[in-house]
């Protein structure tokens, strides 16, 4: 690293760890899940689902709607029906391809302090993404726009437990679609120092995203091949279909050594069988098809298996999240994914239309299934509302509180002689108290978790303060974070190169759209 870059990195470090005056949060840290992964189905049941997915791949097939992708798979020996655009994947081919996928890797950020360890027992949380609407208690529900988009990015940068934005927290529809990925890439790079994201909505967007990530890292394209610095989500078009933009994303990202998180959107009863076993078998087939393509393009390309199986409300057809079915599917997905020894992506989701008790208990259900299922990367960890149709500022703070509490619960209990506190018991004596003991005085500031949102005052003090409920407190906190936000200190040379690239691509018209 050059002296200039070292100085830049130092400035980033000092700003990134500045103590905020108006709220308390956990420090930036690598989160390791200390819980043993839970088994909700037997090993024999895991094999039954695996074998069913192999049957799907071999005998029902996956529709692959990009000729280039079909040609890659055909050259690799897979049976292709060109008229129907269906590829029949041989199980031995799939398992051989998956054997090359890394079990763990590092996602490199513009600021190395924000690098993300993915896989193993590591646990990464990201901001809500891809919602069409923004929401808070002041402005209500509104169409996505750049102001709200930028404010969510500022929260992403400021909240230590969020490793990345994970996409556009809300879609800024006031930026034309032809250049949206460029202007949003500029905002990612300017307002945060964390790992960026690009949508797989056409080959050129992927290539632009890769180049923007390369510039912000200050490395060569050859170095990018072995230092993944960007990720994308690829959703199969369930049931049993991979469409053209997603396939282009798999091919380009894998070819450049960047991360593909392959996530089927299998809602039981709608886009998948109504039974969880059937939905999981379909999820597994779709995920393995996409990831085996990535490994065919570039063996060893980093991939993540996304489990997102949930159910629908059979009365209305609306997606349901944070349900017992979602929790069971998440934990069972973890068992399946560990069979292939690759990282696991899940989500913190709910179906509530407001940041209320339903939103909290459904999200808590989701978060526990994520932890017990052994997930490594949690999309939509903070701010998801309305089944993914809204990003809510107050819900971000509510989720951060729940996540921080879970992180603290994962930390092992210290049973050293000092922590057992026998001397403190002798000092307090029979019927005494521990407030004044040396043991307490030495530890009281750091002994317990300090909440960002929860209000532990007694009733009288709470009433005297105006009886603020959790929603009101969350509103105050998120605004205070934005008021105290400081833009990261990026390398000026990198920013100049990035802006030149973005301005040039915008002048060229960005990418073609239908409007």
From TrEMBL:
It is an enzyme of class 2 (transferase). Its EC number is 2.1.1.-. GO terms for molecular function: methyltransferase activity. It comes from the Bacteria. Transmembrane segments: none annotated. The keyword DNA damage does not apply. Keywords: Methyltransferase, Transferase. InterPro entries: MttB-like_sf, MTTB_MeTrfase. Gene3D superfamilies: Trimethylamine methyltransferase-like. One of its GO terms (biological process) is methanogenesis. Residues 1-20 are annotated as: Disordered. It holds the Pfam family MTTB. Residues 10-20 have a biased composition (Basic residues). Belongs to the trimethylamine methyltransferase family. This is Methyltransferase.
């Amino acid at each position: 690293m050059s002296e200039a870059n070292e100085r830049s990195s130092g400035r980033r470090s000092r700003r990134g760890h500045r103590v905020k005056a108006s709220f308390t949060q956990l420090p930036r840290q690598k989160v390791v899940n200390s819980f043993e992964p839970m088994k909700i189905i037997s090993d024999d049941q895991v094999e039954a689902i695996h074998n069913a997915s192999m049957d799907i791949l071999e005998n029902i097939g996956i529709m692959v709607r990009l000729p280039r992708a079909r040609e890659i798979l055909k050259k690799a020996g897979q049976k292709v029906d060109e008229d129907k655009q269906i590829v029949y994947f041989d199980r031995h081919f799939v398992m051989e391809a998956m054997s090359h996928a890394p079990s763990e890797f590092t996602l490199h950020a513009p600021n190395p302090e924000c690098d993300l360890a993915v896989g193993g027992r590591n646990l990464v949380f990201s901001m809500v993404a891809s919602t069409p609407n923004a929401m808070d208690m002041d402005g209500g529900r509104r169409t996505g726009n750049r102001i709200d988009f930028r404010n969510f990015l500022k929260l992403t940068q400021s909240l230590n437990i969020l490793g990345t934005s994970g996409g556009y927290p809300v879609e800024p529809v006031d930026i034309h679609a032809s250049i949206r990925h460029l202007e949003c890439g500029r905002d990612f790079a300017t307002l945060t120092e964390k790992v960026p994201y690009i949508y797989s909505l056409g080959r050129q967007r992927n290539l632009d995203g890769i180049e923007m990530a390369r510039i912000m890292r200050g490395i060569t394209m050859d170095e990018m091949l072995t230092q993944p610095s960007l990720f994308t989500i690829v959703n199969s078009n369930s049931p049993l279909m991979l469409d053209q933009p997603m396939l282009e994303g798999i091919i380009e990202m894998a070819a450049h050594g960047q991360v593909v998180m392959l996530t089927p959107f299998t809602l039981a009863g709608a886009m998948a069988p109504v039974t969880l076993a059937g939905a999981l078998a379909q999820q597994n087939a779709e995920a393995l098809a996409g990831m085996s393509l990535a490994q065919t393009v570039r063996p060893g390309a980093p991939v993540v298996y996304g489990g997102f199986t949930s159910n629908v409300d059979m009365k209305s057809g609306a997606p349901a999240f944070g349900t017992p079915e979602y929790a069971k599917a998440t934990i069972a997905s973890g068992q399946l994914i560990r069979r292939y020894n690759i990282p696991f992506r899940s989500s913190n989701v709910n179906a509530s239309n407001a940041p209320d008790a339903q939103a909290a208990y459904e999200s808590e259900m989701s978060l526990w299934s994520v932890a017990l299922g052994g997930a490594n990367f949690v999309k939509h960890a903070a701010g998801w509302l309305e089944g993914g149709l809204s990003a809510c500022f107050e819900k971000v703070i509510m989720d951060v509180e729940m996540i921080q509490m879970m992180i603290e619960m994962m930390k092992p209990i210290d049973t050293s002689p000092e922590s057992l506190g026998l001397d403190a018991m002798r000092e307090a004596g029979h019927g005494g108290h521990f407030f004044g003991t040396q043991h307490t005085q030495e530890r009281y500031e750091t002994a317990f978790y300090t909440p960002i949102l929860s209000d532990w005052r007694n009733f009288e003090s709470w009433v005297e303060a105006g009886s603020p409920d959790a929603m009101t407190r969350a509103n105050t906190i998120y605004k205070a974070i934005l008021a105290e936000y400081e833009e990261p200190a990026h390398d000026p040379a990198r920013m100049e190169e990035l802006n030149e690239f973005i301005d040039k691509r915008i002048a060229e018209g960005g990418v073609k759209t239908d409007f």
